[in-house]
């Protein structure tokens, strides 16, 4: 797990701790020894937001370009640590830049097919899906009333009416409304 303290963010901690305890191997990469790290067989250092160069995708589906302001104090970017592990396992990864990672994700993920590192350099960000059908991304995905009704009736405590013209409801579980991740 990278930058996700599931033992703190999941509401059913008994279920999560039982699952983690049953795992043959748990690897955690984070800035701190978070609660989930208590179950880790391997703990790897993570980079702060100031040390990250690459892309970030948020809960709004926005893929954005981020730039580091300082080199990682642990000596490696998160993607470089992942690559070192992959190569130790014999996978032969040879990325030299985070843009190569993003471009491969776009090649392998249909909803990201129109995203490229150079597009993000130029535009700053884009919301997926970004592909032939939506070359500039798609800020709003679900606009028909039947979908909004289905979502609102299935999660009545997580939805509230909004005054926005472009949507009837704002639906978000409380932990997802703000960042709950640790990296």
Describe this structure in words.
This protein has 183 residues and is of the alpha+beta class. The protein has 7 helices and 7 strands. The protein has helices spanning 6-9, 13-22, 78-88, 98-108, 117-123, 145-154, 174-177; strands spanning 27-30, 42-45, 54-57, 62-66, 125-127, 159-161, 169-171. Strands 3-4-5 form a 3-stranded antiparallel beta sheet, covered by helices on one side. A two-stranded parallel ribbon has the order 1-2. The protein is globular. The chain starts with 5 loop residues before the first helix and ends in a 6-residue tail after the last helix. Residues 147-159 and 168-180 have low confidence and may be disordered.
Describe the structure in brief.
The protein has 183 residues and is of the alpha+beta class. The chain is built from seven helices and seven strands. β6 and β7 form a beta hairpin.
Report the oligomer: single chain
Largest sheet: 3 strands, antiparallel
Record field, number of beta strands? 7
Overall shape:
globular
- In spatial order, strands of the major sheet run 3-4-5
Query: Distance between termini?
Result: 11 Å
User: DSSP helix count?
Assistant: 7
Structural class determined from secondary elements: alpha+beta
Strand content: 5-15%
Unreliable runs, pLDDT <50, ≥5 residues? 147-159, 168-180
Task: List the SSEs and their pairings.
Blueprint: H1 6-9, H2 13-22, E1 27-30, E2 42-45, E3 54-57, E4 62-66, H3 78-88, H4 98-108, H5 117-123, E5 125-127, H6 145-154, E6 159-161, E7 169-171, H7 174-177
Parallel strand pairs: 1-2
Antiparallel strand pairs: 3-4, 4-5, 6-7
């Amino acid at each position: 797990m990278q930058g996700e303290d599931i033992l703190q963010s999941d509401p059913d901690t008994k279920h999560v701790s039982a699952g983690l305890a049953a795992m043959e191997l748990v690897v955690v990469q984070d800035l701190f020894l978070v609660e989930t790290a208590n179950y880790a067989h391997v703990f790897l250092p993570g980079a702060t937001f100031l040390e990250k160069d690459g892309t970030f995708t948020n809960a709004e589906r926005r893929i954005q370009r981020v730039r580091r302001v300082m080199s990682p104090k642990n000596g490696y970017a998160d993607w470089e640590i992942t690559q070192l592990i992959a190569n130790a396992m014999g996978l032969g990864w040879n990325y030299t830049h985070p843009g190569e990672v993003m471009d491969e994700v776009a090649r392998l993920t249909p909803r990201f097919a129109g995203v490229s590192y150079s597009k993000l350099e130029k535009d700053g960000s884009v919301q997926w899906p970004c592909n032939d059908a939506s070359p500039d991304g798609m800020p709003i995905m679900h606009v028909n009333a039947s979908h909004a009704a289905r979502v609102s009736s299935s999660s009545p405590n997580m939805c509230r009416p909004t005054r926005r013209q472009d949507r009837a409801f704002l639906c978000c579980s409380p932990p997802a409304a703000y960042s709950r991740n640790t990296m």
